[in-house]
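> run fold Sec-independent protein translocase protein TatC
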Amino acid sequence: MSFLDHLEDLRWLLVRSTVAIILMAFVTYFISDYLFDTIIFGPTRPTFFTYQFFCELSHSLGFADNICITEMPFIIQNTQMEGQVNVFIWVCILAGFILSFPYILWEIWKFISPALYTKEKKNAKVFIFFSSLLFFMGVLFGYFVVIPMSVNFVATFTVSDVVLNQFTLDSYIGMVKTSVLASGLFFELPIIIYFLTKLGLVTPSFLRNNRKYAIVLVLIIAAIVTPPDVVSQTIVAIPMLLIFEASIFISVFVSKNEKK
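> ok
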């Protein structure tokens, strides 16, 4: 195929993926009440699953109510006339993207499959399954771990008792979108490392030599998105470090196969 033919294929990939996202976004419209009241704004309530889990963990570790969250001293307000309309549309689009992610992966696979060997083409189902699984695990990690800890931190942090926390709707939704998507895409790291290793752009030795920098970076991220306590930072950091170690293992596996 010529370069323009590849561009044409890429254009149709984007078109079909966009249509899939819009269709799934339209589906979420019918459950928008549950989507917003229970899912989106769930982390703003002390009864949220993660807060209850930390409270029970606090009791089991003998910390009494030190990690228990009993109130959320802030309010979320809309300051723009079209603010709630824009938020409604973009949240539905985000939900549509998450739900249609396996189909988007299938489209990407069809686009890159001509450059693969026949044996590799047969692994389409494996690629889509594990890529989707990792992405959904990342989304759940962002929703149940990163967002609650971030909300709790910003809700309780104040420079003075004179200042009241009144967050805009856009800032809260922006944090939710960033946390969920960033976590979902970060959990795709093993898949990315797989292809980078096959292309020869990344080697196991490179990943091992830079492990210390990755650990420092993960700890910094965990410290930023969590309250200033060791338990919370550890809970966030461990899954991210495990993902990085899994990426090294995959790079070693691919590198050995390439040498064979």
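The chain has two domains: 3-187, 188-260.
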